[in-house]
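Whiteboard transcription, Tuesday session. T.W. wrote the structure tokens on the left side:
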């Protein structure tokens, strides 16, 4: 199932890359942004 199909189901998709994982500050910001969009924080 693709990301768009998951979004169509009302799920929030937070996408990251290996490069994001190599930069913890960027990865943390990415996760926070996704969680805020989802209304989880």
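and on the right, the sequence the group agreed on:
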């Amino acid at each position: 199932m693709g990301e768009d199909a998951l979004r169509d189901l009302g799920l929030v998709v937070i996408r990251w890359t290996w490069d994001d994982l190599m930069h913890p500050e960027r990865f943390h910001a990415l996760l926070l942004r996704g969680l805020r969009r989802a209304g989880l924080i």
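Someone added at the bottom: Residues 14 and 23 are 16 Å apart (CA to CA).
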